[in-house]
Amino acid sequence: MLCRGVRASALPPGFCPALLFVLAAPAFAHDVSRSDSKIEIQGREARVTLTLNPTEINKTVGSIPDAILQHYIIRSPEPPVQTTVEKYELIPGNLAQTHILYLFARDVTTLEVRSTLYEIMPAGHQHLMSVKLNGTLHEAILDARTQQATFSGVKATNLQTFWRFVRLGVEHIFTGYDHLAFLLGLLVATATLGSLVKVITSFTIAHSITLALATFSIVSLPSRLTESLIALSIAYVAAENLFNFRAMKRYYITFLFGLIHGFGFSSVLREMDLPRPSLALSLFSFNAGVEIGQITFVLLLFPLLQDLVKSGWKSLKPAVSIGIGCLAAYWFVQRALLT
Q1: CB-based contacts of 291: which residues, under 8 Å, 6+ apart?
Q2: CA 84 remoteness from chain centre
Q3: What's phi and psi for 224, nearest 5 deg?
Q4: For residue range 102-141, what is the model confidence (pLDDT) as tens digits?
Q5: What is the pLDDT of residues 58-92, one digit of tens each?
Q6: 330 pairs with which residues across the strands?
Q7: Helix locations, 154-313, DSSP H
Q8: pLDDT at 61
Q9: Are 339 and 224 in contact (CB under 8 A)?
Q10: Which of 31, 288, 327 is nearest to 162 (CA)?
């Protein structure tokens, strides 16, 4: 146990459960459950291509296409006069695509989409949408809190797009348990504020570079490779902490690993297939959200870790490093060998 042998007075109330919660993060780490749909409107027709991971669906669900029709509802604003599942197929990446044609009584000028897919998917499920209507491409993110979106020929304002993607970036960090584990491994071995600034700045610059390169499709890596390398980066930081060695200055190695983590961050934006005209704003907003989440995590945890070290908890660094090292090994096996 991480807290065994530690003086109770040296710990803030509830610290151990909180730390164990971070270290007992889900095996899929930042691969938060997501599905996506692309909708094209042509006159009275709305063609939907909905992609999800069928292994994530609740085991009580029978037919996946039937479940989708029940939990993914579109109106204009009247319900469609005809709904046809044209194709259901498995595609690479352990994914399934359902192609649905919705036929309405009149030309579609406004579309309402309601998703309750979160009811049959893992907790925290997000549904990413893109809708092409009257020559304008719209995006939306639906989840348990935001279940419905309405689209018209009016394009979303820049401010609406900004806040939507800031929110997505913040959520991505706080559900990105592998990124949080990586940051925790850095924080627990960082002694001064100056060192912290160097480490976090190098990580931020590096992942911002590859996030942009991958989002604009300039450079890309296979998802399986990226996720496996992210797990190895966590294992490496844990090993450095445990054995007290440095192959190079910590902020140098953080920069190198930050390049890999940036490819991981980009997965969300690439899944949304964003239009070029709004890509720069979406990228900037998402990255801003990532930074807000990251800085919040650091500001909350770093002072607490420093207080614990000063209080005499000498086993903090090895305990945390062993914990994140075990998680990293599990994630690597799951990502590199089992998917």
Answers
A1: 169, 204
A2: 32
A3: -60, -40
A4: 999 999 989 999 999 999 998 888 898 888 887 777 888 8
A5: 888 889 999 999 999 999 989 999 999 999 999 88
A6: none
A7: 158-174, 177-187, 193-215, 223-243, 250-272, 276-310
A8: 87
A9: yes
A10: 288
Q: What is the DSSP letter of 273?
A: T
List Cα–Cα distances, 64 to 69, 84, 87, 248, 300, in angstroms: 9, 14, 12, 51, 42
- Closest C-alpha among 243, 244, 234 to residue 325: 234
pLDDT tens digits, one per residue of 291-328? 999 999 999 999 999 888 888 787 889 999 999 999 99
Paired tokens of 83: 């709904």
Mean pLDDT, range 232-246, rounded to an integer: 93
Strand-pair category, 148-152 with 72-75:
unpaired
Cα separation, 52 vs 34, in Å, equals 7
Length of the chain (residues): 339
Q: Identify which of 333, 323, 95, 324 has the alpha carbon closest to the alpha carbon of residue 228.
A: 333
Beta bridge partners of 113: 74, 149
If one counts every other C-beta atom within 10 angstroms of the C-beta of residue 134, the result is: 15
pLDDT surpassing 60 at residue 247: yes
Scored b (16 or more CB within 10 A) or e, 112-124 reads: bbebbbbebbeee
Q: What is the mean pLDDT of the chain?
A: 85
Tokens of 253: 């190695």
Query: Considering only CA atoms, which of 45, 49, 65, 46 is closest in space to residue 57?
Result: 65
The residue to which tokens 């949080």 are assigned? 180
Contact 36, 51 (CB under 8 A): yes
Report the sign of the C-alpha dihedral through residues 326, 329, 332, 337, in that order. Answer: negative
Domain spanning 34-157, CATH architecture: Sandwich (2.60)
Task: State pLDDT tens for residues 154-181.
Answer: 666 788 788 888 988 888 888 888 999 9
Element (H, E) at 57: none
